[in-house]
Design a protein that fits this description.
Layout (H helix, E strand, L loop, with lengths): L4 E4 L1 H8 L4 H8 L2 E5 H13 L4 H11 L2 E4 L3 H9 L4 H13 L3 E3 L3 H9 L7 H10 L5 H13 L6 H13 L1
Parallel strand pairs: 1-2, 1-4, 2-3
Helix pairs in contact: 3-4, 3-6, 5-6, 8-9, 8-10
Length: 172
C-alpha cells in the first residue's frame, strides 16, 4: 500500500498523531512524509513548548527518517499565502509541487482546491482511512473507530459526507 512520498500540513499532521491507528496507517501507506518548515515550527516546536503529548512520537519518527523537515520554495509559498492559505498550508502545497509528491495530506477545502488547480493529488484524512480499509491495511471496524475519534477531535464533515464515508468503509 506504499504511495512512496507525501507532504503534510499542520492540521492534518496534528489530527493524525492524536487518533489511534492513524500514525500506523501513515507508515503503511508512505515510505516518507515531508513536513514543511512552517508546519514543523507550528506542530513540533510549538507543541514541545506547550508539552503536547504527540510531539514525542513525532520526534521519534523524525529521528527514524519517516518524517523529513524541508523548506518550501519561498516565492511560491508567499504567492499561495496571498491567495488565502495559511503559512503551513502554503508551504505544504508548494513543497508537494516541488518534490512531485504522490499525495498532499491536507483537509482544508481552499488548500485542496489550489492543489487540484496545480495538479497535486490531495488526500484528506477521511480519504486516507477509506483507502486504508479498501487496501486492507486497517480493518473496517478500526477504520470506523478512527473516523469516530477524528470527529470527537473536531474533524468537520457534513452528515451526508459521514454517511457516504461509512458506506465506503462498509464496502471495503
Amino acid at each position: 500500500m506504499i504511495a512512496v512520498l507525501a507532504v503534510a500540513d499542520s492540521v492534518t499532521l496534528i489530527k493524525c498523531m492524536r487518533v489511534r491507528g492513524l500514525p500506523e496507517l501513515l507508515r503503511k501507506r508512505y515510505s516518507r512524509v515531508i513536513v514543511p518548515q512552517a508546519v514543523f515550527a507550528n506542530v513540533v516546536e510549538a507543541g514541545r513548548g506547550l508539552g503536547k503529548p504527540h510531539v514525542v512520537d513525532l520526534e521519534k519518527d523524525f529521528a527514524k527518517g519517516f518524517f523529513e523537515r524541508k523548506s518550501a520554495p519561498r516565492g511560491v509559498s508567499e504567492a499561495l499565502v496571498a491567495e488565502g492559505l495559511g503559512a503551513g498550508e502554503a508551504e505544504a502545497v508548494a513543497l508537494a509541487k516541488e518534490v512531485e509528491a504522490d499525495e498532499l495530506l491536507v483537509d482544508e477545502k481552499p488548500a485542496r482546491k489550489i492543489a487540484v488547480r496545480l495538479g497535486i493529488h490531495s488526500m484528506p484524512l477521511a480519504a486516507l482511512i477509506i483507502a486504508g480499509a479498501q487496501k486492507k491495511a486497517v480493518s473496517r471496524e478500526n477504520a470506523k473507530k478512527m473516523l469516530e475519534e477524528l470527529l470527537a477531535k473536531n474533524y468537520r464533515i457534513s452528515a451526508a459526507h459521514y454517511i457516504s464515508i461509512i458506506e465506503m468503509v462498509d464496502e471495503a
